[in-house]
TrEMBL record:
Any single Pfam family the record assigns to this protein: Inositol_P
Domain of life of the native organism: Bacteria
Source organism per UniProt: Actinobaculum massiliense ACS-171-V-Col2
GO biological process, one term: L-histidine biosynthetic process
Reactions mediated catalytically: L-histidinol phosphate + H2O = L-histidinol + phosphate
Record-given protein name: Histidinol-phosphatase
MF terms in GO: histidinol-phosphatase activity; metal ion binding
Family: Belongs to the inositol monophosphatase superfamily.
TM spans (from-to): none
Record keywords: Hydrolase, Magnesium, Metal-binding
Residues holding Mg(2+): 66, 83, 85-86, 219
Pathway field: Amino-acid biosynthesis; L-histidine biosynthesis; L-histidine from 5-phospho-alpha-D-ribose 1-diphosphate: step 8/9
Function: Catalyzes the dephosphorylation of histidinol-phosphate to histidinol, the direct precursor of histidine.
EC nos: 3.1.3.15
Classification of source organism: Bacteria, Bacillati, Actinomycetota, Actinomycetes, Actinomycetales
Length: 265
C-alpha cells in the first residue's frame, strides 16, 4: 500500500466519524443548491475536513470537490477529486446507502481511489497495480478489517447478466429511455442499487454491469481504479472515453462492455 493510499484511508476514518455523527441527526441542516440537488452540513464539513488533511499531507497537489470546486486543468499535476457524500438524497432521508468518494488523478490517469460507506460497514479501495479490495465490519468508523480482494464476474451474455442503474429519469433526460427499457427486457436481472454502489457491486462480481448517462467527474473518479483493478472496464457511454471523463458511466466486467455500448451508447 503506497503512501497516498495509506494517508487517504486514515483521512476516511476521520470522515466516517464525522458523517456518522450527522447521519440521522435531528438537527441536520439541508439546503438546496442551484441545480436543485440537496446539500447538508455533513457534505460541507466532510469536504472541508478532507481538503484540510490532504493539503497538509500533499501541499503541492490540487484538490477538487463537489461543494467547493477547484482547479480543473486535469492535464497538469495531481488532483484529488472528492465527493464528500455520494448519495446525499439517501443521507438526508435516513437511507444508509451513501459513501465518501476520493480519487487521485495524475494528468487524467486515476491512479488510486477509495469509497467509504460507514452506515453499511463497507470500504473499497484500490491503487494501480495493487488490486482492488473491500473491507467490512460493524457500523461506525475505525472498525474496518479483513480486506478481501475483488474480482469481476465472468458472465459474457446480456441474457444471463445482472445490471444496475440509478434512475429512469436520467435516461429520459438524456433521450435514451427507450434504449434502457429495451435493454432491461433482454437482461436476466435489473435492479437500481443506486449511485456509487452500482459500480462497486460490479467490482465485487455481484453485478455484471451498470450504467448512468449523466454524471460529474467527482461521482466517478474514486470508483474507477476499484473497478479496473478488479478486472472490469470503466468508460463513458461511448465505450471508449476512459474513466470519469465521458460525462456518464458504462461499467462492466469487460466481457459485456461491447454489448452494453451497442445497446445503451
Amino acid at each position: 500500500m503506497n503512501k497516498e493510499l495509506d494517508v487517504l484511508l486514515s483521512i476516511l476514518d476521520k470522515v466516517d466519524e464525522l458523517t456518522m455523527d450527522r447521519f440521522l441527526a435531528s438537527d441536520l441542516r439541508v439546503e438546496t443548491k442551484p441545480d436543485m440537488s440537496p446539500v447538508s452540513d455533513a457534505d460541507k464539513a466532510a469536504e472541508e475536513l478532507i481538503r484540510s488533511e490532504l493539503s497538509q499531507a500533499f501541499p503541492d497537489d490540487f484538490v477538487f470537490g463537489e461543494e467547493q470546486g477547484g482547479n480543473t486543468d486535469w492535464e497538469k499535476g495531481r488532483h484529488w477529486i472528492i465527493d464528500p457524500i455520494d448519495g446525499t438524497k439517501n443521507f438526508v432521508r435516513g437511507v444508509p446507502v451513501w459513501a465518501t468518494l476520493v480519487g487521485l488523478a495524475d494528468s487524467k490517469d486515476i491512479i488510486l481511489g477509495a469509497a467509504s460507506a460507514p452506515a453499511i460497514g463497507r470500504r473499497w479501495y484500490a491503487s494501480r497495480g495493487e488490486g482492488a479490495w473491500v473491507t467490512s465490519a460493524g457500523i461506525g468508523a475505525g472498525r474496518f478489517h479483513e480486506a478481501r480482494r475483488l474480482h469481476v464476474s465472468r458472465v459474457s451474455e446480456v441474457e444471463n447478466a445482472s445490471f444496475s442503474f440509478s434512475s429512469l429519469e436520467g435516461w429520459r433526460d438524456a433521450g435514451k429511455l427507450q434504449q434502457m427499457v429495451d435493454f432491461q427486457g433482454r437482461a436476466w436481472r435489473i435492479r437500481g442499487y443506486s449511485d456509487f454502489w452500482n459500480y462497486l457491486l460490479v467490482a465485487e462480481g455481484a453485478v455484471d454491469g451498470a450504467a448512468e448517462p449523466e454524471l460529474d467527474v467527482y461521482d466517478m473518479a474514486g470508483l474507477v481504479p476499484i473497478v479496473e483493478e478488479a478486472g472490469g472496464t470503466f468508460t463513458g457511454l461511448d465505450g471508449k472515453t476512459p474513466g470519469p471523463w465521458g460525462g456518464g458511466a458504462l461499467v462492466s466486467n469487460g466481457l459485456l462492455h461491447a454489448q452494453m455500448q451497442e445497446a445503451l451508447g
